[in-house]
Design goal:
6 strands
């Protein structure tokens, strides 16, 4: 991402989560390296283009089963970029029903509390 204003509406919290998403070649499994109430960043050496709508399957630690939702790629960080940022794509959640939104919000709130506690900091 180049310089400029930060357009994020929600604080991103670092946490590794397994996530799968559908591409034209099938499902790909990668790791989301941060999450917020509104989206996540997937670490990938082959990010999809900005604007691509993806079907995500997310496994949250406090849910019994993975669940699916839609997202749109809103930011791409290419491999071997000049800022040496991890490659991947920022995905904004879209068309999320209230149950899934509540599950994500509970997880993000719990993670925020854990990261704020003295033993949660590194």
């Amino acid at each position: 991402m180049s310089g400029g204003s930060n357009k994020r509406r929600a604080e991103r919290l670092e946490n590794d989560l397994p996530v799968a998403y559908r591409t034209v070649d099938g499902f790909i499994t990668d790791w989301a390296v941060n999450i917020s109430r509104g989206g996540l960043f997937i670490n990938s050496r082959s990010p999809l283009p900005v604007g691509t709508v993806v079907r995500l399957i997310i496994s949250l630690p406090d849910t019994a089963f993975p669940f699916s939702l839609s997202g749109r790629v809103v930011r791409v960080v290419a491999p071997n970029n000049p800022g040496n940022e991890p490659p991947g794509m920022g995905v904004e959640f879209i068309d999320v029903d209230e149950d899934k939104r509540a599950r994500i919000a509970r997880f993000v709130d719990r993670l925020r509390k854990e990261l704020a506690s003295p033993r949660g900091r590194k």
